[in-house]
Design a protein that fits this description.
This protein has 314 residues and is mostly helical. It is built from 14 helices and two strands, in the order H-H-H-H-H-E-H-H-H-H-H-E-H-H-H-H. A two-stranded antiparallel ribbon has the order 1-2.
Length: 314
């Protein structure tokens, strides 16, 4: 899978701008979905507000860039904004479970949207547009090809970091809270602190996605801090899966690329996405990537052992 990503990136040298933009968009949504997958797939917290975290970081990215802030500082600001926003979302919701948690994060995201619509400092309903890039590094990252490379690197680093965290003591504590909170509390796991820390880590990843989202689209509006993008991220995870590091990227490719590869109207595209989602839920309820990996890996192991056995007899 990593080799396939490398081949796509090498081929990107000769691709037209519209294709580069499409692939970069897939990676940006993949990064955001990867951040959500950490607390949803591993922690059992279904947040509809993570799209708003991406939007808040995009506002920060465009606002800082327009103010002439260098790109490295802007990137740090976006990570901090993502983490703080996730902490603010998690603080009142961390004790909730199931659909109560999801509904509360939905309400928080919609509150952010309404607030953004009434704040003239960030453009109100008009939103913010990236001006001619003059801050250090912003013009370089505003190039679709460069942004694609950076997005791919961030995705791979975030996926590796997520794997390390899942295998750590903290990751095992988070998994224990998902499986049985009563038992986790009984053995001394700090539930509130564990969930809040997971939310902050997840929010920082979404903050990185927000940085790329803002510079790639050069525009951010109040709708981007509403619940719509959060719902999109959940659909991406349903299609791609949360157990494998390629799941968010695969789901993003299906969701983002499908409407752009057809010549139908937007209404027909939405119908096709809906049908794809229904098919994914019915045929591969854990997502495309886990379903494929659960079948491919055992087959490879059987072939490997069979070849080893044949060699030994020979």
């Amino acid at each position: 899978a990593a080799v396939a990503i490398a081949l796509v990136l090498s081929a990107a040298l000769d691709l037209p701008k519209n294709i580069l933009f499409l692939i970069a968009t897939v990676f940006v949504y993949g990064i955001a979905a990867l951040g959500l997958a950490f607390i949803y797939g591993h922690g059992g917290m279904l947040s509809i507000g993570h799209g708003a975290i991406v939007g808040a970081a995009a506002y920060a990215a465009i606002g800082a860039s327009n103010a002439g802030v260098p790109l490295p500082v802007t990137a740090v600001v976006c990570l901090i904004v993502g983490g703080i926003t996730a902490f603010a979302f998690g603080l009142p919701t961390v004790r909730l479970h199931g659909h109560y948690f999801a509904i509360t994060t939905f309400a928080a995201a919609e509150t952010m949207r309404v607030t953004a619509e009434n704040l003239p400092a960030i453009g109100a309903t008009a939103g913010l547009t990236l001006l001619a890039p003059r801050a250090l590094g912003v013009a370089w990252l505003s190039n679709e090809r460069n942004l694609l490379y950076v997005a791919a690197a961030i995705y791979l680093v975030a996926a590796a970091g997520s794997a390390v965290l899942k295998g750590s003591v903290f990751g095992r504590q988070l998994l224990a809270t998902r499986e049985n909170e009563t038992l986790a509390r009984a053995v001394g796991i700090p539930l509130t602190r564990t969930k809040l820390l997971a939310s902050v880590v997840s929010g920082a990843v979404c903050g990185a996605a927000g940085l790329l989202f803002g510079l790639l689209n050069t525009y951010v509006a109040p709708d981007h801090v509403g619940a719509s993008i959060g719902v999109t991220l959940i659909l991406i995870l349903i299609v791609g899966g949360t157990r494998h590091w390629l799941g968010p990227l695969t789901g993003a490719a299906v969701y983002v690329a499908l409407p752009n590869l057809t010549a139908f109207s937007p209404l027909v595209d939405q119908i096709l996405i809906g049908l794809a989602l229904i098919a994914a839920v019915l045929l591969v309820p854990e997502g495309i990537v886990p379903a494929v990996s659960d079948r491919v890996y055992p087959a490879i192991r059987r072939l490997t052992f069979r070849g080893t056995g044949a060699g030994g007899r020979a």
